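Below is one record:
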Amino acid sequence: EVQHVESGGGLVQPGGSLRLSCVVSGFTFEAYAIGWFRQAPGKEREGLLCISSSGGGTGDADSVKGRFTISSDKVKNTVYLQMNSLNPEDTAVYYCAADFSARTQNLVVHGFCSPPDFGHWGQGTQVTVSS
């Protein structure tokens, strides 16, 4: 069974930074697509950044372009989301998700990072940006 444990969320002031971690277990870090998503109150879940084991694509939502980066550590089975220059509009629950289908991996390689394409989700971690 695939499991995700997200951590690193919390309260941060505008302009600050946070790094979220997602430890994934139950599968080998070989053929996969993993991404970070968020959902603010009253809004749809939004895809932020995704990566594929084949090395392609990030999705790179306009709302976080240039401020957020995704990375992974295969030894630690961990995916990170580095968030800089945070603003109140970034307040949301942040989720990591994984999928192992060739279809999703191909979509990510071509720059698509969409929640319906991912089948395995973590519980989410709250990020609040406020002074």
Summary: The longest helix spans residues 102-109.
